[in-house]
Amino acid sequence: MTFQKIMQQLAKKVYAPVYFLQGNEPYFITQIVSYIEKNVLSPEEKSLNLRSYYGKEYALRDIISHAKCIPMIGKRQVIIVKEAQEITTLQRKEGQQKLASYLTDPNPRTLLVFAYKNKVIKAKTFVETFKKSGNLLYTTPKVYENDIISWIDAYVQKRGYTIAPKAILLLQNAIGLNLQHLANALDKIMLNCTTTKNITTAI
Fold first, then answer.
1. Which residues contact 74 (CB under 8 A, 6 or more apart)?
2. What 3-state DSSP class applies to 143?
3. Measured distance CA(34)–CA(11) in Å, rounded
4. Which of 41, 50, 56, 150 is the most buried (most CB within 10 A)?
5. Which residues pair with 53 in a beta bridge?
6. How far apart are CA 163 and CA 153, in angstroms?
7. By the 8 A CB rule, do 177 and 201 touch?
8. Can you give the pTM of this predicted structure?
9. Distant-in-sequence, close-in-space partners of 162: CB < 8 Å, separation ≥ 6
10. What CA–CA distance (Å, rounded) separates 192 from 203?
11. Hey, is 134 helix, strand or coil?
Protein backbone atom coordinates (compact mmCIF):
# COMPACT_ATOMS: atom_id res chain seq x y z
CA MET A 1 0.00 0.00 0.00
CA THR A 2 1.27 3.47 -0.85
CA PHE A 3 1.77 6.34 1.57
CA GLN A 4 -1.07 8.28 -0.09
CA LYS A 5 -3.46 5.33 0.25
CA ILE A 6 -2.60 4.87 3.92
CA MET A 7 -3.28 8.55 4.62
CA GLN A 8 -6.57 8.38 2.71
CA GLN A 9 -7.72 5.41 4.76
CA LEU A 10 -6.74 7.09 8.01
CA ALA A 11 -8.71 10.19 6.99
CA LYS A 12 -11.73 7.93 6.42
CA LYS A 13 -11.18 6.35 9.86
CA VAL A 14 -10.42 2.96 8.32
CA TYR A 15 -7.85 1.48 10.66
CA ALA A 16 -5.77 -1.68 10.72
CA PRO A 17 -5.17 -3.29 14.15
CA VAL A 18 -1.37 -3.14 13.70
CA TYR A 19 0.81 -0.81 11.60
CA PHE A 20 4.44 -1.76 11.11
CA LEU A 21 6.13 1.18 9.40
CA GLN A 22 9.69 0.51 8.28
CA GLY A 23 12.35 1.74 5.87
CA ASN A 24 15.10 4.22 5.16
CA GLU A 25 12.99 7.32 4.55
CA PRO A 26 11.77 8.40 8.01
CA TYR A 27 9.62 11.24 6.65
CA PHE A 28 6.78 8.95 5.58
CA ILE A 29 6.85 7.08 8.89
CA THR A 30 6.83 10.32 10.87
CA GLN A 31 3.85 11.66 8.92
CA ILE A 32 1.75 8.53 9.47
CA VAL A 33 2.60 8.35 13.17
CA SER A 34 1.87 12.05 13.65
CA TYR A 35 -1.54 11.74 11.99
CA ILE A 36 -2.49 8.77 14.14
CA GLU A 37 -1.34 10.55 17.32
CA LYS A 38 -3.38 13.66 16.53
CA ASN A 39 -6.55 12.28 14.97
CA VAL A 40 -7.52 8.74 15.98
CA LEU A 41 -8.57 9.61 19.54
CA SER A 42 -10.56 12.55 20.84
CA PRO A 43 -8.81 15.02 23.18
CA GLU A 44 -10.69 13.49 26.12
CA GLU A 45 -9.59 9.96 25.24
CA LYS A 46 -5.91 10.79 24.73
CA SER A 47 -5.10 11.24 28.40
CA LEU A 48 -5.89 7.60 29.17
CA ASN A 49 -5.83 5.81 25.84
CA LEU A 50 -2.78 7.18 24.00
CA ARG A 51 0.53 5.61 25.00
CA SER A 52 3.98 6.11 23.51
CA TYR A 53 6.85 3.71 24.17
CA TYR A 54 10.46 3.86 23.01
CA GLY A 55 12.02 0.69 21.68
CA LYS A 56 15.19 0.89 23.76
CA GLU A 57 13.15 1.19 26.97
CA TYR A 58 10.55 -1.58 26.56
CA ALA A 59 10.66 -5.27 25.76
CA LEU A 60 8.47 -6.56 22.96
CA ARG A 61 6.61 -8.89 25.33
CA ASP A 62 5.60 -5.92 27.50
CA ILE A 63 4.38 -3.92 24.51
CA ILE A 64 2.27 -6.83 23.31
CA SER A 65 0.95 -7.35 26.83
CA HIS A 66 -0.21 -3.71 26.94
CA ALA A 67 -1.75 -4.08 23.47
CA LYS A 68 -3.90 -6.96 24.73
CA CYS A 69 -5.43 -4.81 27.48
CA ILE A 70 -8.88 -3.30 27.11
CA PRO A 71 -9.01 0.53 27.17
CA MET A 72 -10.52 2.06 30.29
CA ILE A 73 -12.79 4.41 28.35
CA GLY A 74 -13.75 4.85 24.69
CA LYS A 75 -13.74 2.40 21.82
CA ARG A 76 -9.99 1.94 21.44
CA GLN A 77 -6.53 2.67 22.71
CA VAL A 78 -3.57 3.74 20.59
CA ILE A 79 -0.09 2.44 21.35
CA ILE A 80 2.81 3.93 19.41
CA VAL A 81 6.23 2.33 19.60
CA LYS A 82 8.80 4.95 18.59
CA GLU A 83 12.33 3.97 17.58
CA ALA A 84 11.08 0.39 17.32
CA GLN A 85 14.30 -0.57 15.55
CA GLU A 86 15.91 -0.43 19.02
CA ILE A 87 13.91 -3.49 20.12
CA THR A 88 16.64 -6.09 19.75
CA THR A 89 14.29 -9.07 19.74
CA LEU A 90 12.57 -7.74 16.62
CA GLN A 91 15.84 -8.16 14.77
CA ARG A 92 15.77 -11.89 15.53
CA LYS A 93 13.49 -14.69 14.42
CA GLU A 94 11.99 -15.32 17.86
CA GLY A 95 10.93 -11.68 18.22
CA GLN A 96 9.39 -11.61 14.77
CA GLN A 97 7.50 -14.80 15.59
CA LYS A 98 6.22 -13.30 18.84
CA LEU A 99 4.81 -10.30 17.00
CA ALA A 100 3.45 -12.55 14.23
CA SER A 101 1.59 -14.54 16.86
CA TYR A 102 -0.14 -11.37 18.07
CA LEU A 103 -0.99 -10.42 14.46
CA THR A 104 -3.08 -13.55 14.04
CA ASP A 105 -5.40 -12.48 16.87
CA PRO A 106 -4.91 -8.76 17.60
CA ASN A 107 -6.97 -6.89 20.16
CA PRO A 108 -9.72 -5.19 18.08
CA ARG A 109 -9.78 -2.31 20.55
CA THR A 110 -6.07 -1.51 20.20
CA LEU A 111 -4.37 0.33 17.37
CA LEU A 112 -0.70 -0.67 17.65
CA VAL A 113 1.91 1.25 15.64
CA PHE A 114 5.59 0.40 15.24
CA ALA A 115 7.88 3.13 13.85
CA TYR A 116 10.85 1.01 12.68
CA LYS A 117 13.11 3.62 11.09
CA ASN A 118 16.17 3.15 8.89
CA LYS A 119 15.88 -0.63 8.92
CA VAL A 120 13.78 -3.22 7.11
CA ILE A 121 12.59 -6.66 8.16
CA LYS A 122 12.47 -8.80 5.03
CA ALA A 123 11.87 -12.24 6.56
CA LYS A 124 9.37 -14.02 4.31
CA THR A 125 7.27 -15.49 7.11
CA PHE A 126 7.03 -12.09 8.81
CA VAL A 127 5.90 -10.37 5.62
CA GLU A 128 3.43 -13.14 4.76
CA THR A 129 1.83 -12.97 8.20
CA PHE A 130 1.04 -9.31 7.66
CA LYS A 131 -0.47 -10.01 4.24
CA LYS A 132 -2.72 -12.75 5.59
CA SER A 133 -3.78 -11.10 8.84
CA GLY A 134 -5.30 -7.82 7.66
CA ASN A 135 -2.64 -5.78 9.42
CA LEU A 136 -0.45 -3.27 7.62
CA LEU A 137 3.23 -3.60 6.80
CA TYR A 138 4.53 -0.49 5.04
CA THR A 139 8.05 -0.13 3.70
CA THR A 140 8.98 3.41 2.69
CA PRO A 141 9.80 3.90 -0.99
CA LYS A 142 13.28 4.81 -2.14
CA VAL A 143 13.52 8.50 -3.01
CA TYR A 144 15.33 9.34 -6.24
CA GLU A 145 16.88 12.61 -7.30
CA ASN A 146 14.28 13.25 -10.01
CA ASP A 147 11.49 12.94 -7.40
CA ILE A 148 12.75 15.81 -5.28
CA ILE A 149 11.75 18.75 -7.50
CA SER A 150 8.10 17.72 -7.68
CA TRP A 151 8.06 16.79 -3.98
CA ILE A 152 9.38 20.18 -2.86
CA ASP A 153 6.98 22.00 -5.17
CA ALA A 154 4.00 20.01 -3.87
CA TYR A 155 5.10 20.45 -0.24
CA VAL A 156 5.13 24.26 -0.39
CA GLN A 157 1.99 24.50 -2.56
CA LYS A 158 0.03 22.47 0.00
CA ARG A 159 0.91 25.16 2.55
CA GLY A 160 -0.08 28.05 0.29
CA TYR A 161 3.40 28.98 -0.98
CA THR A 162 5.24 28.90 -4.28
CA ILE A 163 8.93 28.30 -4.80
CA ALA A 164 11.26 29.35 -7.61
CA PRO A 165 13.04 26.60 -9.57
CA LYS A 166 16.45 28.01 -8.60
CA ALA A 167 15.48 27.84 -4.91
CA ILE A 168 14.48 24.19 -5.34
CA LEU A 169 17.83 23.34 -6.90
CA LEU A 170 19.67 25.21 -4.16
CA LEU A 171 17.85 23.23 -1.47
CA GLN A 172 18.37 19.96 -3.31
CA ASN A 173 22.10 20.57 -3.66
CA ALA A 174 22.49 21.67 -0.05
CA ILE A 175 20.41 18.99 1.66
CA GLY A 176 20.23 16.05 -0.71
CA LEU A 177 17.48 13.42 -0.82
CA ASN A 178 16.44 13.25 2.85
CA LEU A 179 12.79 14.31 2.85
CA GLN A 180 12.64 14.91 6.59
CA HIS A 181 15.60 17.30 6.42
CA LEU A 182 14.07 19.03 3.39
CA ALA A 183 10.73 19.39 5.16
CA ASN A 184 12.42 20.87 8.24
CA ALA A 185 14.32 23.37 6.10
CA LEU A 186 11.22 24.38 4.15
CA ASP A 187 9.20 24.84 7.34
CA LYS A 188 11.86 27.22 8.68
CA ILE A 189 11.97 29.13 5.39
CA MET A 190 8.17 29.51 5.26
CA LEU A 191 8.12 30.63 8.89
CA ASN A 192 10.51 33.43 7.98
CA CYS A 193 8.57 34.46 4.85
CA THR A 194 6.61 37.23 6.57
CA THR A 195 6.08 39.50 3.55
CA THR A 196 5.65 37.07 0.67
CA LYS A 197 4.31 33.62 -0.18
CA ASN A 198 6.92 33.10 -2.87
CA ILE A 199 10.21 31.44 -1.90
CA THR A 200 13.19 32.56 -3.94
CA THR A 201 16.96 32.38 -3.56
CA ALA A 202 16.82 35.85 -2.02
CA ILE A 203 14.85 34.60 1.02
1. 41, 42, 45, 48, 49
2. coil
3. 13
4. 41
5. 81
6. 7
7. no
8. 0.87
9. 156, 197, 198, 199
10. 8
11. coil
